[in-house]
Amino acid sequence: MALYEVALLLLLVSCGLMVTNTASAATCDQTGPCTCRMSDGTGEIDLSALASSDSALPKFENVNSASDDYVYSYNPCQPFTQGTCKDVSACQYVPQLKTYFPLGTQDSAKFIQEGQDLTLRYFAGQGSSRRETKVKLVCDRGETTFTAEGQDPNVINLYVRQLFSLHS
C-alpha cells in the first residue's frame, strides 16, 4: 500500500468507519435518533456527545448561512425550542421577517447513504409547508464544526448542512 493509502485508512478507522468497495458499500442501520451501526460491522456513528441537553439551547445556535441571509440552529439527539420552533432538531430564523421556521423534528431523523456520503435527514410540516434538513456527516479529527449551506437551489424547502466531527 502506498503511504497516502495507509494514512487514509488510518483516518477512516480512527473515525469509526471503514470504506469498502463501492459495489459492496455498507449502510448505516439506524439504532436511535442520532446513532447508527455500520451493516458490515466496521463501526458506529453516535452523535450523542454533540447534543446540548438544555432544551432552550441548541448545540449549534444561530449559524449564518453561506448562501442566504437566514440563520440556522441545530441540535442532534435532543429537541430544543427557539422562538416559534417547538421541540425541533433544526430551526431557521429569517431576520427580515422576524420569523422562525421548523426544519425538522427529532422523531423524523433518518440516516441515509447517498453515494459515498452519509446524511442525517429531518422533516417538519405537511404538504406545501413541509421542510427538510439534510445534514451531511463528515468524519473529521479536528474541532467539531457545523456549517449551513442554505436552501438547495434545485429543491424547494430542502436545507443543506454539514457536520464535521470525530463523532460523524
TrEMBL record:
Signal peptide positions (record): 1-25
SMART domains tied to this protein: CIMR
InterPro entries: Man6P_isomerase_rcpt-bd_dom_sf
Designated name of the protein: Uncharacterized protein LOC109478745
Entry GO terms, CC: Golgi membrane; trans-Golgi network
Keywords: Signal
Lineage: Eukaryota, Metazoa, Chordata, Cephalochordata, Leptocardii
